[in-house]
Amino acid sequence: MPLVAGQKYTLTFTGRASSPRSVAVGIGENGGSFARSLDTEADLMPTGKEFSHTFTAPVTNPSAQLQMAHGGFRGAEVSKRDRSGPRRD
């Protein structure tokens, strides 16, 4: 997904897991130094929850990627809706 420096973006997704656990969530470079424009965590629960993170891209990145790391846990489920951005306030 392309990011433009100085623009605001919102990542929204729903996540759940069979037991409580945290997953790392990021948007960043697909290679190189793997620098991230968004670096956060989501605390998943069995009931499911919607997460929304707004961030400003620090640099232009024409091929940023969504990164989610759940550490190989079984029972984690995440669904991603359409990405949005740039967002103007």
From TrEMBL:
This is CBM-cenC domain-containing protein. It comes from Deinococcus sp. VB142. The lineage of its organism: Bacteria, Thermotogati, Deinococcota, Deinococci, Deinococcales.
